[in-house]
Specification:
The protein is mostly helical and 231 residues long. It has 14 helices and no strands. Helix content is 72%, strand content 0%.
């Protein structure tokens, strides 16, 4: 049976053989930049992730390599039940682009029992991708945690309102994402989210106004209203 070190070596070799300059250039055009990147598409990596299976030790070792694609794989390889709050804090400090932030939050961190605690902590942080992670987590939980009661999401609307004044591109887009997914969750939260969106849209602060208008446009669209009416 291969050791973790051997498996890491095999994964990196596999990724290197499939990387390309064309993919790296394409990623850069979408603001996906990292110090170490092979240039392998997400679709290509999905097949490898399935073959690797869940392996917490392998995920930790892959993360330590610093390679963008290896870190993306950890979202599908790590075991959410074994992810600790300390690990989440270590990894979030390494986030250096929106894609790694959103993939880890959407496919791994939101499945841990520590997710809501990290929303509270990270939303107060200054680092751009740490702060983005708080709102990527809200959006991920709104989509995936079907059994969660309304209370945490209703409370998060206050966090969203406070962060709306942050005009950094990757923060404000995540704040809008969190507001929109919260409002799509059910009719009760929809009414609350629309109220927040309307208030932000009237704000004198440019970023708040952009978030409010962006969210209001989607939440009041015919498609969203029809979908919620059927629930």
């Amino acid at each position: 049976m291969a050791t973790t070190t051997q498996r890491v070596r095999e994964v990196l070799g596999w990724l290197e053989r499939r990387g390309s300059r064309r993919n790296r250039d394409g990623m850069a055009r979408y603001a996906i930049r990292a110090p170490k990147v092979f240039g392998v598409s997400m679709a290509t990596m999905h097949g490898l992730a399935k073959r690797l299976g869940r392996d917490h030790d392998l995920a930790l070792a892959l993360w330590k390599t610093g390679w963008y694609e290896a870190r993306i794989l950890t979202a599908f390889v790590d075991d959410p039940a074994r992810v600790s709050p300390a690990q989440m804090d270590r990894w979030v400090r390494d986030f250096d682009n929106w894609a790694i932030c959103d993939t880890i939050c959407f496919h791994l961190f939101d499945k841990t029992p520590h997710a809501w605690g990290k929303v509270s902590q990270w939303s107060r942080r200054r680092e751009e991708f740490v702060k983005r992670a708080a709102f990527a987590l809200i959006a991920s939980l709104a989509v995936h945690d079907k059994k969660c009661p309304d209370a945490p999401f209703a409370k998060s609307l206050g966090v969203i309102t406070r962060a709306a004044a942050d005009d950094r591109n990757f923060v404000k887009k995540a704040v809008s994402w969190a507001l929109r997914t919260t409002g799509r969750r059910n009719r009760r939260l929809h009414a609350k989210a629309v109220t927040v969106a309307r208030r932000l849209a009237a704000s004198p602060v440019a970023s708040s106004r952009w978030i409010g208008k962006d969210a209001y446009r989607e939440l009041t669209s015919a498609a969203v209203v029809r979908r919620l009416a059927r629930r």
